[in-house]
Amino acid sequence: MTSSSDFAHDLLAALTRRPRSISPKYFYDTAGSALFDRICELPEYYPTRTELALLDTFGPEMAECIGAGADLVEFGAGSNVKIRRLLRALHAPRRFIPIDISAEHLMGAAQALQADHPGLQVQPLAADFTRSFELPPPLPLNGPGTAPRVGFFPGSSLGNFTPVEARGFLRRASALLRGGGLLIGIDLVKDPAVLHAAYNDAQGVTAAFNLNMLARANRELGTDFDLTAFDHYAFYQPVHQRIEMHLVARRAQHVHLAGRRFDFAAGDSLHTEYSYKYTVEGFRALAAESGFVPEAVWCDPQRLFSVHWLRS
Ligand code: AVI
Questions:
Q1: Ligand 1 pocket residue status of 98, Cβ below 6 Å
Q2: Least enclosed by CB within 10 Å: which of 40, 162, 277, 308?
Q3: Is the pLDDT assigned to residue 149 strictly greater than 90?
Q4: Which of 247, 248, 270, 232 has its CA nearest to residue 12?
């Protein structure tokens, strides 16, 4: 879990360095998680509905890859919307360990899932999976050995990691899931206009989500960010095949944190998020370099989004 002291430490570092940059994991307090749920419903934000349709259409094929009696771990489980779709297709899964940084959101969603799936052991874990964390012990089998673990990482959240972080995460995941595998959703490179619209929605929900970084700092750390003095700025950078999100100062201003004053000139940016897009081939190569054997891949007819089964 991220604590306020982690946030204070990282925000102080972000305001001190140039360019100013903070991890997107701090978006997800209770308010930010609720805003993200609203993003997922937006007409412009195609990833969620496209991935859900892939889970519905190809769930039986995914279930064949995963096998019966799975011991599932979801990285960044949020509201459990996607695991619910997968559970419809899976054969007698034994346990589900949802991991999420937002403890309150996680616990509520886990209780609701447990009530709907009494035969499944739901064991939520509030943790920051970008750091090292401990999983509960593996489940014993009827015979010798333990049940292989199956990872689930939907939503293209891997895209929020830099390439170095993505490789590091995949390497750690392939070790953790040895003998099992990872089902992972990956957003694809596409027409920049489609990407631009997805991160600049007409209702301004993505802007509110981005600005919640500053609102959260004001709530938790006592900073004095003027939310009306920063603009949401998101654009597609085709050389690096990534969306970049920034908060840009509208005018010269300053903010206080931990007794120190930090100045912004008009136009100065605080970078808040990357969202990398991949080609199917590029992602399979990255997975293979990171210790997985890429097996099946499912895409929608427009090739907006992909789901991969990687054996470990
Ligand atoms: C969680 N993550 C995959 C989202 C994305 O698309 O990169 C976060 C997001 N940021 C703005 N809109 C959605």
A1: no
A2: 162
A3: yes
A4: 270
Instruction: Give the pLDDT confidence score for residue 2 in this predicted structure.
Output: 62
The amino acid that residue 18 corresponds to is: R
Provide the 10 A C-beta neighbour count for residue 125. Answer: 20
Q: Which two tokens stand for residue 92?
A: 């007698």
Q: Which of 48, 165, 211, 275 to mutate to test the pocket of ligand 1 (most atoms within 8 A of CB)?
A: 275
ipTM above 0.90, yes or no: yes
DSSP state letters, 46-60: HHHHHHHHHHHHHHH
Q: What does the alpha-carbon distance between residue 45 and residue 189 come to, in Å, rounded to a whole number?
A: 14
Contacts of 128 by beta carbon, 8 Å cutoff, 6+ apart: 1, 2, 25, 101
Q: How far is CA 147 from the centre of its chain?
A: 26
pTM summary value? 0.95
The residue among 233 and 33 whose pLDDT is bigger is: 233
Query: Residue 243 C-alpha to ligand 1 middle, in angstroms?
Result: 9
Residue 296 is inside which H or E element, if any?
A: strand 293-299
Task: Collapse the DSSP code of 97 into the 3-class scheme (helix H, G, I; strand E, B; otherwise coil) and give the result.
Answer: strand
Q: Is 96 in contact with 122 (CB distance < 8 Å)?
A: yes
User: CB of 156 closer than 6 A to ligand 1?
Assistant: yes
